[in-house]
Design brief:
Distance between the termini: 36 Å
Bound molecules: glutathione
Shape: globular
Strand order of the largest sheet: 2-1-3-4
């Protein structure tokens, strides 16, 4: 097995990498790692103690790379087809902007303010802070959703009307939003709601969502 991805796919960043690999049609092995209680050998390959890390066993050691954006860029160089980054220099940079926006602003609101409270706390058998969730839903996320709705316009995808790393990066964050029991309000953000459904319907996303949803549903029912 040439590619190993360390980290569970409930992490939006691990899922981002797994979706990119699925889109490329490449085989991969996924190994679960709890970043909050990592085994010592994981610390040696993840200086920031974060998931994901990729190992490419085709490459002589050191053969690991941390960080989803670094990993996706590497995958693009190693497996250029189908491309996940636009060829045009400006469009490529714009796709990377949406990747950055998703990885920073979207992640830092949906993650700690919603997914952590509703899913991770449940895993830790702790109650969720619904006051924080309401603040996230009512104050933090609306301006982000307004921006995404405006940037989408009439397009099916964020950049160049072609599926790209921008869509993987935004799409993965909305999987965590839905795992937290939420849906984009189609009355307020019709383009974004339709977009999320369209991106999540791709086989690359469906494979992850189907597997994770079973776990999340069992967790909620417990
Ligand atoms: N910029 C990193 C972010 C990765 C990240 O924050 N991963 C989280 C899980 S979703 C993590 O490992 N957190 C553990 C920690 O921060 O200690 C990437 O794109 O891979």
């Amino acid at each position: 097995m040439a590619l190993i991805v360390y980290g569970g796919t409930l992490s939006p960043f691990v899922r981002k990498v797994m979706v990119a690999i699925a889109e490329k049609g490449v085989e991969v092995q996924n190994e679960n790692i709890n970043p909050f209680a990592p085994p010592p050998e994981f610390l040696a390959i993840s200086p920031l103690k974060r998931i994901p890390v990729l190992r490419d066993t085709d490459v002589p050691e050191p053969n690991t790379l941390p960080d989803s954006s670094v990993i996706c860029d590497y995958l693009e160089q190693k497996f250029p087809n189908p491309p996940l980054y636009p060829k045009d220099a400006f469009q490529r940079a714009r796709a990377m902007w949406f990747e950055e926006y998703a990885d920073s602003v979207v992640a830092s609101n949906i993650g700690p303010g919603l997914f952590f409270e509703r899913v991770v706390r449940k895993m830790m058998q702790q109650p969720s802070n619904e006051e924080l969730c309401s603040k996230t839903l009512q104050e933090k996320l609306p301006p982000i959703f307004d921006y995404l709705e405006k940037e989408l316009g009439e397009n099916a995808y964020f950049v160049g009307n072609t599926f790209s790393i921008a869509d993987i990066s935004v799409g993965t964050m909305f999987v965590n939003f839905e795992h937290a029991g939420e849906k984009v309000d189609a009355a307020r953000w019709p383009k974004l709601a339709a977009y999320v459904a369209r991106i999540h319907a791709r086989p690359s996303f469906q494979a992850m969502i189907a597997k994770e949803s079973k776990f999340v549903q069992r967790l909620r029912a417990a």
